[in-house]
Amino acid sequence: MSGAVASPPPAGGAGGAKRGAVAPDAHFVQGNEACVRGAMYAGLNFFAGYPITPSTEIAEHLADILPRNGGVFIQMEDEIASMCAVCGAALAGAKAMTATSGPGFSLKQEAIGYACMTEIPCVIVNVQRGGPSTGLPTKVAQGDVMQSRWGTHGDHSIVVLTASSVQDIFEITIEGFNISETYRTPVILLFDEVVGHMREKLVVPAPGEIAVVDRLYTEVKAGVNYHPYLPREDGRLPVSDFGGVHRYNVTGLFHDIFGFPTENADQVSRLIYHLVDKIENRAHLLARWKEYHLDDAEHIILSYGASARSARHLAETRRGKGDRIGLLELQTLWPFPAALVREKTAHAKSVFVAEMNMGQIAAQVKQAVNKPDRVFLVNRMDGMLVTPTDIGAVMRTVEGRGF
Amino acid sequence: MELYRVLMSGSGGQGVITMAIVLAEAACLYEGLTAIQSQSYGPEARGGATRSDVIIADGPIFFPKVLQPNFLVALTNEASNRYVPLIRPGGICLYDTDLVQLDLRVDARPRGLPMYSAVMKEFGKAQSFNICVLGAMAALIGAVVSLNSLERVLLTRFGPSRHEHNCRALRMGAEMAAPMVDA
Q: Residues 318-377, chain A: which have Cβ within 8 Å of B?
């Protein structure tokens, strides 16, 4: 299915609801609940977690919904155990997820590395709050962008997705499960306090309306040797549920096609290239984004998550005043869609990156574009959502029109 | 167009966030409008300043926070001191006359009602206080969100056993505010 779910078309002219016309399957829910509903839509049947603000509602709702739908909910003793339980459940055949925030995300890193190395499909939600350490528990931030990419040690690759609205959280959560199943990789859903806690309308599509990717099982019969790490020609690894009809080994050590440890230089090299290439070579297929008014844009704001809402507000307001401003909203942060960013911003005079950190995505944008000195960071890290006014002030200054 | 930018403020436990959710959900699901609700609170479960923002519009809403409310609800002195200066000129400030001593030096329309004491007298406990405030709000913002829509949300959110009680509190607030509605 890779690439079959294309990024949605530009939604520039999307109007508001007509009074009185409300879809019957519409709900008024938080982003965190939309994540839960998206996960259930995608077939989630195992959750292990240790609740932490501002992700708590994900555990809260799943504690109610999962057992009633034949699934398993476990509150573990800590985040380390939660992530390990997710790895085990996924290996045994479950669609598994955990949810956390900064401090818990730090604790999960070791087992996330294990999931990368052993190619376990699973989904990790990080609803970002202010950091480092326990930081600002109830306030917004986007400071975990690099941690989501490089939080676990060693060369590896990982998929990180984000969203800026309740509806988008629902859809990107399903997408996260689909990518995770397709490529047998952990997928991180990197949300933030504002989109996690904010309530707005969610319309839940009928079952089947959004494609759901299920696990690809091996055709090797019971009693016949199954090689858990022997990729098919398309690079996918068919699975056999651990503890089922095939016996095989799983280890965080470099391993051969049987899953047994190896220090053979050829096999080590082949595995590390496989782990990185299966994701980095597909950066174009994994890119999800939204774009508004880019066609004739002189100045482009690049943003993601809650910050993208402020960017959109400013872009729409200034469009109304005749300014040619566009917005590129990234939904895939890793693998970083460098080619997309380069192409979409090629004709812009300047690019403004709006994010709530010290420039973690801005640094990637500078590497991707032809004129890195025309990339400007608009940020805020005081626990408050970056405002349209914040973005506008930096833009006016750069444009030479005063503060 | 944004019709209402509401900032509701009080202390933790007063039901400020619940009130905001009910209002926004009614606008979104039963009035066919766009609504967004967000909140800001500290780590405490009770006490501490709480605020919740609701934006109601007839088109898409992007920035979800309220910076300049045109409708402020203040249920503690701390809340009114902090947020009254943010009111957009000509905006409405609904406050409880038992809990708040309003010091209004900005261009706003004060709407003070003794809702807390009325609820205590009628029900003997403060549980329905936020629903009463919501009723007063609904009356003051006119046709944007009807009492009927609010009642539908109260029924789905809190169930039939509390419904009659909730509706009484809601109507009580609306009746108290009726004389203050601008012609």
A: none
Helix (H) or strand (E) holding B31: none
User: Which chain A residues are within 8 Å of B38, Cβ to Cβ?
Assistant: 194, 197-199
Contacts of A156 (CB under 8 A, 6+ apart): A113, A116, A117, A275, A276
Query: Does A385 lie at the interface with B, CB-CB under 8 angstroms?
Result: yes
pLDDT at A230: 92
Which structure tokens are listed for A298? 């002189």
Nearest-neighbour CA in chain A from B95: distance (Å): 25
Q: Residue B42: its chain A contacts at CB < 8 A?
A: 138
Chain B residues in contact with A313 by the CB 8 A cut-off are: 62-63
pLDDT at A16: 37
The separation between CA A130 and the C-alpha centre of its own chain, rounded to angstroms, equals 18
- The whole-number average pLDDT for the span A218-237 is 91
User: Residue B63 has what DSSP assignment?
Assistant: S
CATH 3.40.50.970-classified regions of chain A: 26-203
- Asked if A203 and A26 touch (Cβ cutoff 8 Å), the reply is yes
Task: Judge whether A215 is closer than 8 Å to chain B, CB to CB.
Answer: no
The class (CATH top level) of A26-203 is alpha beta
| Confidence band, pLDDT 50/70/90 cuts, at residue A1 | very low
Does A19 reach chain B within 8 Å, measured CB to CB?
yes
Q: Which of A22, A28, A309 sits opposite B24 (nearest CB)?
A: A28
- What pLDDT, on the 0 to 100 scale, is given for residue A14? 36
Give per-residue pLDDT as tens, B19-57: 999 999 999 999 999 999 998 876 665 667 789 999 999
pLDDT digits (tens, 9 = 90+) for A353-387: 999 999 999 999 999 999 999 999 999 999 999 99
Contacts A26 to B, Cβ<8 Å:
28-29
Closest chain B residue by Cα to residue A196: B38
Q: To the nearest whole percent, how much of chain A has pLDDT over 70?
A: 94
Domain ranges of chain B: 2-180
Tell me the three state secondary structure of residue B107. coil
Q: Is the pLDDT of residue A237 over 50?
A: yes
Q: What was the ipTM of the complex prediction?
A: 0.94
**């979409």: which residue's tokens?**
A344
Q: What is the mean pLDDT of residues A232-259?
A: 94
**Do B28 and A201 count as a contact with CB atoms less than 8 A apart?**
yes
Residue A21 banded pLDDT, cuts 50, 70, 90: low
Contacts of residue A221, Cβ cutoff 8 Å, sequence gap at least 6:
none
Fold entry, domain A290-398 = Rossmann fold (3.40.50)
**Residue pointed to by tokens 């509806």:** A167
B2-180: CATH topology is Pyruvate-ferredoxin Oxidoreductase; domain 3 (3.40.920)
CATH 3.40.50.920 placement within chain A: 290-398
| pLDDT in the model for residue A13 | 34
Mean pLDDT score across all residues of chain A: 94
- Name the minimum distance, in Å, from the CA of A57 to any CA of chain B: 14
Burial class (CB in 10 A: 0-12, 13-18, 19+), B125: exposed
Contact by Cβ (8 Å): B154, B167? yes
State the smallest CA–CA distance between residue A198 and chain B in angstroms.
Answer: 5
Q: Is the CB of residue A13 less than 8 Å away from at least one CB of chain B?
A: no
